[in-house]
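Title: Comparing notes on inverse folding

I've been comparing how different people in this forum approach sequence design from structure. To keep things fair, I'm posting one structure and asking everyone to reply with a full sequence. Here's the target:
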């Protein structure tokens, strides 16, 4: 059973990294799109629909990377109130935070999934010069939130069963001494 859970967690990690890299590629695409749009605007011929596309893809950047940020504990923590507490109390508060976060993320995942499904059914588009579909962005929000909800479940499981936690090293030394991202 432990091996199955560790395999599932490895799959979750790979999915989170894939979503994070996809978010990075969207950032690169947006950089080129904005650069071309600004250049074309200076020449008097802006790209139609570029502003709407940038707005829609910006949502994707955030939601595709949110689960990975949770995995590496990159979200903001306010420790002013907990600095003086004993370690066990801090861990207890973290656990309560994970439970509350799980409930909130599950509700947001459920509702964003419903919104994405409705958007697909009606083939929702942004109004403007160019009709840009909105449903892909809504699907990406649902995928990102589902991934974050799953990560919250793993955080709770790691708290309850520390033996499940995989090696969380970010870098691995290879034979030549170079560092590579896992």
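Reply #1:
Here's my take.
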């Amino acid at each position: 059973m432990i091996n199955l859970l560790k395999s599932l967690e490895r799959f979750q990690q790979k999915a989170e990294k894939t979503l994070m890299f996809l978010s990075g590629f969207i950032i690169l695409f947006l950089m080129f799109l904005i650069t071309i749009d600004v250049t074309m605007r200076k020449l008097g011929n802006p790209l139609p629909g570029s502003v709407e596309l940038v707005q829609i893809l910006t949502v994707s950047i955030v939601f595709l990377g949110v689960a990975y940020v949770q995995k590496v504990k990159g979200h903001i923590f306010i420790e002013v109130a907990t600095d003086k507490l004993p370690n066990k109390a801090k861990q207890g508060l973290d656990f309560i935070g994970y439970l509350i976060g799980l409930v909130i993320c599950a509700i947001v995942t459920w509702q964003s999934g419903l919104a994405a499904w409705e958007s697909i059914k009606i083939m929702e588009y942004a109004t403007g010069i160019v009709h840009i579909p909105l449903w892909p962005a809504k699907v990406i929000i649902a995928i990102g939130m589902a991934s974050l909800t799953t990560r919250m479940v793993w955080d709770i499981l790691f708290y309850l069963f520390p033996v499940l936690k995989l090696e969380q090293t970010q870098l691995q030394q290879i034979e030549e001494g170079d560092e590579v991202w896992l």
